[in-house]
Each structure stands twice: as structure tokens, then as C-alpha cells.
């Protein structure tokens, strides 16, 4: 069941933003070798994605300004 203010959470919550960033990093990790760009050390994006996902977990537990329980 969705929270009452799910649109505000989707637009303003740092946990959502960080999870989207983790997804982008994972996609970039897969896409760069496919297009022939390998200037970034192997597994760097995986490490960064893990760190960002952990930060999203923490952000989900913290109260965030601009998001109120409707």
C-alpha cells in the first residue's frame, strides 16, 4: 500500500534520488565496456553503486525536510 503523499516522497526523498543514482551507475558499468570505453578502473562503478545504495538506506530512515505525512 502506498503512503498518502507518495508523489511528494517520489519527488523529494533523498532515498529515491540515491537509488536512482545507484541504478544509473550500474547501467554505466555495463554500458561503457559495450561501447568500447574502458578508461575507468574495473568495478569502480560497482563500488560506487554499493556506497550510494547504502546511503539510500540511511536516507530512508532519516526525517527529510519538505516531506510531511499527509
Descriptive account of the structure:
The structure is a single chain. By secondary structure, the chain is mostly helical. It has one domain. The chain has helices at 6-12, 14-34, 44-61. The longest helix is centred in the middle third of the chain and has 21 residues, at 14-34. The two termini are 15 Å apart. The model has no long low-confidence stretch (mean pLDDT 86).
- Largest sheet: number of strands, sense, barrel closure: none
Please give the domain count: 1
Beta-strand percent range: under 5%
Nearest-angstrom radius of gyration? 15 Å
Helix/strand order: HHH
State mean pLDDT (0 to 100 scale).
86
SS summary, helix count: 3
**Overall outline:** elongated
Query: Unreliable segments (pLDDT under 50, ≥5 consecutive)?
Result: none
Q: How many strands?
A: 0
Decide which structural class fits the backbone.
Answer: mainly alpha
Distance between the termini: 15 Å
Q: State the helical fraction.
A: 55-70%
Amino acid at each position: 500500500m502506498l503512503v498518502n503523499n507518495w508523489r511528494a516522497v517520489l519527488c523529494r526523498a533523498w532515498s529515491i534520488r540515491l537509488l536512482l543514482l545507484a541504478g544509473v551507475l550500474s547501467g554505466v558499468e555495463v554500458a561503457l565496456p559495450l561501447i568500447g570505453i574502458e578508461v575507468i578502473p574495473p568495478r569502480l562503478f560497482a563500488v560506487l553503486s554499493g556506497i550510494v545504495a547504502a546511503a539510500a538506506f540511511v536516507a530512508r530512515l532519516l526525517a527529510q525536510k519538505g516531506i510531511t505525512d499527509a
